[in-house]
Amino acid sequence: MRGTAQLPASKSESNRALILQALAGGGQLDNLSDANDTQLMQRLLADATTEVVDAEDAGTVMRFLTAYLAVTNRHALLTGTARAQERPIAVLVDALRQLGADIAYEKTEGYPPLRLRGWKPVETDKQAADEPIELKVRGDISSQYISALLMVGPMLPNGLRLWLTGKVGSRPYIRMTMALMQHFGGQCRDLGTALEARAGRYQPADYTIESDWSAASYWYAMVALAPAGSHLTLPGLRRYSWQGDQAIVDIMAQLGVSTEYLADGVRLMQTTPSAGFTQDFSDCPDLAQTVAVVAAALNVPVLMTGLESLRIKETDRIFALQTELANFGAFLTEETEGFFRVSTENFHVSGQTVATYHDHRMAMAFAPLALRGPLTIDSPQVVRKSYPQFWVELEKAGFIM
Fold first, then answer.
1. pLDDT at 124
2. Taking Cα atoms as reference points, which of 80, 105, 74, 107 lies closest to residue 92?
3. Which pLDDT value is given to residue 229?
4. Which residues make Cβ contacts (< 8 Å) with residue 391, sequence separation at least 6?
5. Given the DSSP bridges, would you call strands 160-165 and 75-79 parallel, antiparallel or unpaired?
6. Is 286 a catalytic residue?
7. Comparing C-alpha atoms, which of 210, 150, 156, 195 is closest to residue 11?
8. Residue 401 has what pLDDT?
9. Dist. CA 260–CA 239, nearest whole Å
10. What is the mean pLDDT of each run of 10 residues along the chain (401 residues)?
11. Cα–Cα dist 205/213, whole Å
């Protein structure tokens, strides 16, 4: 395998930039992701009149729009797919209610659909002293809740201070949010146990979205499993990135892939895998499936932690991984609470069918196994969520569909 693979733009950056552009009232965004989630966000932000806002299966769209629609005083029903209605949102709704949002649950308490009925900012004694309103938020829930609150913080009369309790997961995504807020003129700072967004209007700004490191992880997997002598170039990635999934560089170095930074992108080259390692995925949970599959195929034992949020993704990703890996002779076993070990027993690829569970990352994480033998990916269209051209790029790289 040699050549260049084209990556989509970062969905995480794109969806945050679209919310901030809307709050700022303008600015030019270049290289927006063509992922369905981003295209959906664009459409929903552009339509300020519809009463029913359908976030489909997009977690960032559901969570970011909950805060955005509330703070902009929209009256609407925010809904999504059956799976989206199984993903909890009470932490975000409770916080927004404390800030002044009138939100009701249309069906099940704590879950979408949500009925948004306007906004009336609360007044506190601290506000009189020009101090931000303060909230406590669990740090071990999805960082998307925290990012949603932070982005609307400057729109509040006195701003917002979030006190994070417990272990904070996916902190790089929070840092990405704050960096983009600052790019659009927002004043925010990380105080360690607290995050602060000062009151003040955003300003229109231009921004070019970076290529997606999450999508790059699948090409790292392919280089790891490809014949000896393979190397690949991925354009549009930055050495100094705001994306937490740049962690794939160090993780895959232990699975036999080195990274050379270029003027515009990276070159991946094969090296020798390690004998095994422990990896905490708290800050990069979207990489877990990719790493588990590669480790199993290479028979490199990996102890994985920080997988808590995988239970509430597009599917229960831990269950999905355990089920599908078993078909290839590999196992993801919880040794002690929160610690999962990847192990292999006669790993083989011989025409198996991989179920994707309506999850784009299941499809793309298992696809590289085609380098070890024929296999079938069920419901391949799920990749449209984040990487619509994935199968096209695989064909360009020489895969036979």
1. 60
2. 105
3. 93
4. 380, 383, 401
5. unpaired
6. yes
7. 210
8. 87
9. 10
10. 94 97 97 94 94 94 98 96 93 95 97 95 62 88 91 95 87 94 96 93 96 97 96 96 95 98 96 96 93 98 92 86 97 95 95 96 97 97 94 94 87
11. 24
Place of tokens 């549009």: 236
Residue 359: phi and psi, rounded to 5, are -120, 115
Nearest 10 degrees: Cα torsion 281, 387, 324, 311: 40
Q: What is the token pair recorded at 381?
A: 């269209």
Tokens coding 343: 């192990």
Q: Identify the CA nearest to 123 among candidates 86, 92, 157, 149.
A: 157
Dihedral of alpha carbons 89, 94, 95, 101, sign: positive
- Under a CB-based contact definition with an 8 Å cutoff, are residues 151 and 19 in contact? yes
Q: Cα–Cα distance between 256 and 19 in angstroms, integer?
A: 38
- Residue 129: burial class (beta carbons within 10 Å; 0-12, 13-18, 19+): exposed
Place of tokens 């101090």: 131
- Report whether 111 contacts 87 (CB < 8 A): yes
pLDDT of residue 257: 98
pLDDT of residue 170: 79
Query: What was the pLDDT predicted at 365?
Result: 98
- Is the pTM above the cut of 0.85? yes
Which amino acid is located at 188 in the chain?
Answer: C
Q: Which of 286, 316, 359, 378 is catalytic?
A: 286
Per-residue HEC secondary structure of 325-378 comes to: HHCCCEEEEEEECCEEEEEECCCCCCCCEECCCCCHHHHHHHHHHHHCCCCEEC
The answer to whether 359 and 314 have CB atoms below 8 angstroms apart is yes
